[in-house]
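Good morning C.,

I know you're traveling, so I'll keep this short. The sequence:
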Amino acid sequence: MRKKSPLKQLGSNQNNQQALLKQNQQKGMFKSGMDILAENQRRKSWEELQLDIKMIEPESMQIRKHRDKLLREDQKADRLGTRPVYLNVYALQVKKYQEEIHAAIKNNDKKGEKDVMLKVAGLKQMLTILNELMQEFDDDHFKEGSFLSKAVSQQQVSFATQMFCKNDELIITFAAKEDVLRGQLDYYGNLVREEEQYAIVKDFYNNPVLVNIINGNKDMFLTDRIKAMEYMGFVNKLNAEATEARKGKSVVDIDLGRINYKMDTLFGINDGTATEKQDQLVLIFAHDDAVLEDSNTFKRHLYEHPNLQNLNYGGFDFETMQFNPLLGPGDINYWHDEIDELDRLRLVDAICNQDNEFFDIKLLRTLVKEYYTIKAEDAWWKGMGFDKGRLDLMRLKQKELIKERFKMEKAKAAQDGKKDFVFDGKVYPTGANLKKQKEEQDQIIKSANTGLNQ
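The tokens, ready to paste straight into the viewer:
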């Protein structure tokens, strides 16, 4: 029998490898092309959705936001320092203090004279604070590289814009003793304080409101890049550990306790111990597409969710929400019988927008933690080389799987002779007939002893 030439065999193997490589390249090219086309369409749909989101805003809010935009554009083009409206009211206040000093000197009122001088010093200090607030506003909105979070209150941004930009409609006033006596409140429900400076601005519903100047930049916060890096470092470590285990041909259990601890540490928990920083981080991870540098946020995930009725995050329940719009065309008993596009827009705004009357930071915390927990679990799952589609399917059928797990654990507890068992943190009865089980056990023991004695 004639042997094949080793050189021919080598050439044949090389040709096969080249053909396989070319085939894989073609597959990769096709997949990448389809991914690019899909992402292009997703991006286009997202951009179009931004217009729909504006649709649910009241007309007065849209007008106010448009005016604020013009004010900021004008401010960006021409930064004027302290606005004339402030200087004018300061001049009037100084004149008032001069009259008070003159009266105190005339009456030889040393205490009154000292009190007025303290007011003048306070006015000078307030002017310094005002300039610092204006500089802070400019840094937040116009400085290159500013990381002002998209999650900040848009109502508060509107107030700051009206107060710190050149605004012919702005009215500045000092609270008088009469204002305090009649119980005048500012926008935040605080009693006004005598001699402090207030701006009269318009809210999103065109109502004039009082805002203390020192609250002009209230609750403005930056995207926390350090915490974002901490989260990504944690996710990457999970993936690396799972990948290492897979390479070592071993299967390890996912450390869910460790993941839960990290999420609690980052975002806080809903027992009243969450800090202001943790609340802000919840909002940042819900809104800021720059936080993980992939344009994906929890808010966008909700807008693009294929079936909000099947939203399983954190035991999410439409029935317990205060959000309760009128029934729509496809609804019978509840607003969520059929979630149309308008329902979707309003629901996501209620969940994510802190200016919404139905906003609940505790609900958002629960949902955000679950969303970013899933990202961490997915990273570990991918590192282990498991089928991603399998995990997605299990999550989709989460409610059915919960019922199956309940049956299995209940049966096991009953078989072990337990009266109650713990399932997902709650105690349930097994329904086991413990008396009957005890009688059966006694009978088995009696039979065994009888056999030994024979």
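Safe travels,
E.
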